[in-house]
Amino acid sequence: MTRKIPYTASERSVVSEIPSMFPGFPATPIYNTPVNPRENIRAMYFDKHPYWAGGRDTTSAMPPIYNLMLGRSRDDTDTFGRFWQWVESAGGSITPHGQPLFTNVNEWKDHIKIPNIDDWDWSLAEGRTIDTRYSPNVSLINGFWFERMISWMDFMPAAEALIDEDQHDAIMEMFEATTELCLKVVDKLLELYPCIDGINLHDDWGSQAAPFFSEETHRKLFLPFAKAFCDHVHSKGRYTSLHSCGRNESRIELLIEMGFDDWAPQTMNDTKALYEAYGDKIILSISPPGLPEGASDEDYKQAARDYVDNFCKPGKPSSIGFSPLASNPVFQEELYEYSRKHYAK
């Protein structure tokens, strides 16, 4: 497909909008674009040359049964018997601290039964209408590795297990089982919703200051299973993205080796340096910083132009993440027009 479709002023007319996934954020306008937002997202991930700077023009295809069985449901019990308590101030659910199922991974089989997902009531996911003008994806919240360990063990015992070589064999055996579960869930979701373009996996690997564990540990205990996940999703013709909080910039080469197509680094990471060095190897989802109170419309337009100039270079597209700036309508309009003209060159 050619990307050199000249921009016309009629593209600025709004024909629809995408409701925000997050409370308090405005909807994303859909313009009279030369292709629909889904085609633009696919062009970004699969061709590395979108028609305009995208990333927010997606839609979730995740059925509620995933959150009930494996995710962060509200005040409910998951498939492993772990109760998830909703915390309003955090906007999410956590398992109760101080009540681990086990504290040594060598005992995991005594406490964890890997479920047969065919026993779940998948009828809860049937008959759903997905607007395929937008790129459908699913987000595997809680992941299947470190975050899952934390939900079973509490944070400290899980972190200590990673540096205890006497537990490494059991961790790898456990991760092999959870990864197999993950791939079965992926296959079921793609069977239910063949329109899904991408699979996003959650697994937090760092604090605000540094990764939780050494690169050697990361490579030994996580790389084989993350690569198996990415290889499987790629074999289905879909892209992979990683949601991993923390200052993990020192591990970006490892993320690329794992096979992730996209990572959304938090703002404590040097996203500009990461983009310059690795933007041709992995798409970075970048959340531009906000502007001071009282900023003018021209300030917002300039911020949009700066984003495109800095993060939309040939063969190195970026995905724009969620932030107050990215949600500003003046910024959005300028981002669309300026990036459309930029990518059409």
DSSP summary, beta strand count: 12
Q: Strand-residue fraction?
A: 5-15%
* Assembly level: single chain
Global geometry: globular
Q: Mean pLDDT score, rounded?
A: 92
Order of helices and strands: EEHEHEEEHEHHHEHEHEHEHEH
Helix content: 25-40%
* Spatial sequence of strands, sheet with the most strands: 3-7-8-9-10-11-12
Work out the helix count.
Answer: 11
Key structural traits:
single chain, 7-stranded parallel beta sheet, 13% strand
Report on this model:
The chain has helices at residues 37-47, 64-69, 108-111, 146-153, 155-162, 168-192, 215-235, 252-258, 271-278, 297-311, 329-344, and strands at residues 14-18, 28-31, 58-60, 76-77, 83-87, 92-94, 135-140, 198-202, 239-243, 262-263, 283-286, 319-320. By secondary structure, the protein is α/β, with parallel strands linked by helices. The chain has a seven-stranded parallel β-sheet. The protein is globular.
